[in-house]
## 1
Amino acid sequence: MNRPRRIALVDVNNCYVSCERLMRPDLEGVPLVVLSNNDGCCVARSAEVKALGVKMGTPWFQMKDLAKQHGIRAMSSNYALYGDMSRRFHAVLAQWVPPECQEIYSIDECFLDFAGQDRLDLTKTGQAIKAQVKQWVGLPVSVGVGSTKTLAKFANHVGKKQPQWGGVCDLTVLTEADRLALMDQFPVQEVWGVGRRLAEQLIELGLPTTGALARSDPKRLRERFGVVMERTVSELQGVSCIAWENEPPAKQQIIASRSFGGPLYTLDQIAEPVRFHMGRAAEKLRQQGSVAGRVGVFLETNRFRPQDPQYSPSRSLALPVATDDTAVLITWAVALLGALFKAGYRYVKAGVMLDDLRPRGLHQGSLFDAQPPVHDLRRERLMGVLDQANGKWGRGSLGVGVVKHQKGWAMNRDALSPRYTTCWEELRVVT
Amino acid sequence: MTPPDHGGARPGAGRKPGSNAYGEPTTPVRIPVSQTPTVLAFLDAYRQETRASDPRALTSNPPPMPLTAYLSKVPAGFPSPAADYAEELDLNQHLILQGHAESTFILRASGHSMIGAGIFDGDELLVDRSLTPKEGSVVIAVVNGDLTVKRLTFRQGQPVLQAENPHFADRTFAEGEELSIWGVVTRVLHRV
């Protein structure tokens, strides 16, 4: 008999909070949140904050009273630190499986396929992984093992929520009855891919728990919810339907946007961040070796200020020739911005989108081009220099057009910790 | 009727083509009267012999000269016979234990408590978290929520954090008090 596949999901507990605490042991045990860009919403909560009932994504200004009452500390997102810690985390996990059996799923989640290592006790292995990541990179992790990705994800959740598992839950050693009994203890919303809305509909159908969903007929649910739900149910039943991706797929869309530090009012003011964001988006585009066939721009006013007139337009257009040239893309973006912009609003956010991405080199000229698009080597080299300069001296050192010093629209990051692990000037000091 | 044997073109007659002041064929053109001095000045300059100190204008409006950028380097000459033996000193490899890049962090020392161990104010410390601290290891320890660099020893089975400077007292730990080690210092980078 074929042994079932065994897939582990290793996930860093409260990743951003844990990264901050590694360098600041004094924050251990202190209720701590990490805020999104511009110090807007909670994107990570320590266990103490979760225990107070604060939900993911709660705007910081809405919880200021609670914070005062319980001494909740807030820090700005330090992506230089989290990115470096994430790289270390994934590198440690790479020691456990061959390269093709590791799938880096996100900054703090990693799938490991233990195919071909049938003798390994994955509960013990999970504990060893947990101990190694804690010692080597100082991050607490949970490990879930199942015969499919969805089951591994569920097992990981169980390991986190029920202390008796010690952070490691292997569903493959349970009998089917035990597995289903365990699933009965968890609401259906905990299943990977089941959002709040979907969960409400499933509860209405009489499927309130993960166990109930796992016992249902995937074909029948497909009729009502579509093929994604069919796959989810099959995965819960141990039939693998979600492909293994050890190479991250090229992005289909690139968005670069950010809230301004404060409101902006004029076209000139807003054109600056739009140029800056398009510079970043174009850089990402070149990194993945694509060209964009469509450019979009959007603007937002503050929806948390109902007293303000609201205007949040968005528009995109198809380019005559797909390109990855920063200057060309910025020209289009600024033109779009000019078409969207209306005076008299208090704008708080702008962003750019690149769509219709295709591999570079598959240029297709248009019938009405003045000249067939040629590979302009000098232009390509120029873009290469641009990317190198920004890699060496930091984002935004070299750009197109006037970008002043991010005055007025730079992010608010009032509680930003140093780049401890990526910058010589900001190393952690020990006495 | 026979052709006349006189009159008409005679081969070899007249000025030789290119025998003018320019050394190449010429053509008559109409020019605006107002531009006559400019054109004459240009032609005058054009007739001059080229000298290094006074280069002759070939044209008043040179066409752009395209430069080709190559995507790859073109090797010229013989390949270096040493290329096959290229070796260099890799500081990362030297300073970081093999396979421990993920667990190695760089911290900065502050103060004078460890000068006896060769750790001075402002030095960079390479700290390997994967190593198990032993008696005598220089460690980064967590004391009162802060990170400190000290030498780890044991007295009657109890850990002691020792400074390497007589002006600093040892940090001892009472029964039940827990000492947490953050990492083991493996190298000091000191600027001389």
## 2
Amino acid sequence: MKILVCIKQVPQKDAPLKLNETGTWIREDVSYEINEPDAYALEEALRQKEKHGGEVVAITSGPARSQQVLREALAKGADRAIHLEDNAFVGFDAYNTARAFAAAIKDEQFDLIFTGLQSDDYGYAQTGVILAELLGHPHATIIMQIEKSDSGIRVKRELEAGYFQFVDMPLPAVLTIQSGISKLRYATLIGIKQAKNKPLRKVALAEVQSALSDNLQKIERLYVPQKTKKTEIIDGSPNEIAKKLVERLRNEVRVL
Amino acid sequence: MKILVVVEQREGKLNRVSWETIAAGQALAADTGGTLEAAVVGAGVSGYAAEIAAKKLAKVYAIESAGLEPYTPDAFVHALKGFIATNQPALVMMPHTYQVRDFVPKLATAAGSTCISDCIGYKKDGDKLLFTRQMFQGKLAADVSFTGAGPWFVTFQNGAFRGDKAEAGAAAAPVEVVNVEIPAGVVRNQPHEVFKEAKQAVDLTQAEIIVAVGRGIKEEKNIAIAKALAEALGGDLAASRPICDNGWLPMDRQIGSSGQTVAPKLYLALGISGAIQHIVGMKGARTIIAVNKDAEAPIFEIADYAVVGNLFDIVPPLIEEVKKAKAANS
Ligand SMILES: Cc1cc2nc3c(=O)[nH]c(=O)nc-3n(C[C@H](O)[C@H](O)[C@H](O)COP(=O)(O)OP(=O)(O)OC[C@H]3O[C@@H](n4cnc5c(N)ncnc54)[C@H](O)[C@@H]3O)c2cc1C
Ligand SMILES: Nc1ncnc2c1ncn2[C@@H]1O[C@H](COP(=O)(O)O)[C@@H](O)[C@H]1O
């Protein structure tokens, strides 16, 4: 099976975020990591390849720094990578990102395309499904299991409140992967070495420009949300905090 | 402006969150001088249409086809795309459920437009409509506008509006049945029955005291200190999703949209950031205490008591103090 995995670089989970001068995006001088569900998407792609053979290709769009996530994917076992490299990609809405990906892979035929189920920064939860529509492929979202079947694949979708559902679908298909689908592997030293010699194709914005449009939605203002609940801050030394909390637990919460 | 709310029915039930979307639509229609209509999509849905028609709406559509049951994104998009092309709403509103997020990006794309997803509210800025959504896992919020032509699509987060605020109409709204054809070949996915995994061993829904751990616990072996605190308090241990994904605690201790929904007297969150998917499972707790080293963690927005600090410093003396208090009681 030939599998494409979309991997996004996002600010690290506990990176302190600061707004830029115009208040429309964050200041980019933070540390970055792989969007968590994308790491699981990659893991699942590698496992499918191990079972059924084929090829795993990682793709990302973003500035030079985002090459790091492709390096990680190659070190873990992806065969090659595609980097749509430009600062402008950071500001793309999901529609434009999907269109850029569709344009970048127009000469290739993938059996499966994986994305994460949503990004930690924008959280659109849309890019994969839009890509499926642009390519004319069927899709399924929030996937927790994938098995090859005679006619295509059988996937397990996670539904709300602990429910699940199996869905049979033909290939090619697009799947959005949920965190926890399997255990993540670590890159090995050999893997990291080998990654240096694996092909990484760079795609400039100009090469996909004709497939793009203006964004259809725009962030007018980004800000720290206002608190609506009255919260009492409990501070002091750890011992003082413990005493204050127990006092509240006894007299106000009444659980002691 | 013509506004259409598409309510959700699934597996023979009208999803309660539908009332929230109707309330949101009513507020928006009032603020923009628009008209509000609603639609329900499926096979044999005219009963739901009649139920919805009791609310203050200009009209309700029952979009009907045998091909719409069971749910598939292909059939839903086929039916709704055709309906929207004829009906021409300027704005289409839906709840941000798993089912909606499965098909709405495809629908918006097929309609040549876009969806502002998972919104928690809206604002009017002169003539411009802005939709507010969480970004960066709730650490920041953004006001987002549409830049292109309609139809515009918006989805709202569970709990963003109050369903009980959906206004009843003076008389029942007219209901129109719209029969649609789903031609062979449109639907490519074959869904099977919905099911629940084997019965859960732990039922936290009745728990009075819950100590929940998140990724701030760092390593599996550290779970022990949270467990010790839970034991001292006479409560149960629970966790955020990543802890269960890692296998550090079994899945049936997961709280959130894909785990259990709990409403204890006390929910003590240790090293949990407060992503919306976690919060929906515990915001009904009577008292929430959060310990997090990041003063900006979204969990503090819903906490009654906030401790900004390192859980590894706070928890050990807290266990001691709780034990002392218990000993003094007996
Ligand atoms: C469709 C879908 C369904 C989901 N379902 C669920 C669900 O049911 N339940 C669920 O929980 N999540 C669910 N999630 C995942 C959710 O979005 C979050 O990723 C998850 O809740 C984050 O868990 P966390 O808070 O433990 O980890 P993080 O977000 O990584 O937060 C860890 C926190 O610990 C703090 N911290 C770190 N070290 C310390 C320390 N020493 N002392 C104190 N604090 C510290 C950090 O400041 C941070 O705030 C779902 C996601 C999706 C997309
Ligand atoms: N710039 C990007 N580079 C690589 N993958 C992306 C990018 N943007 C979105 N994706 C993929 O699309 C998924 C959903 O993102 P979103 O629609 O932003 O929530 C992510 O989990 C990624 O797999």
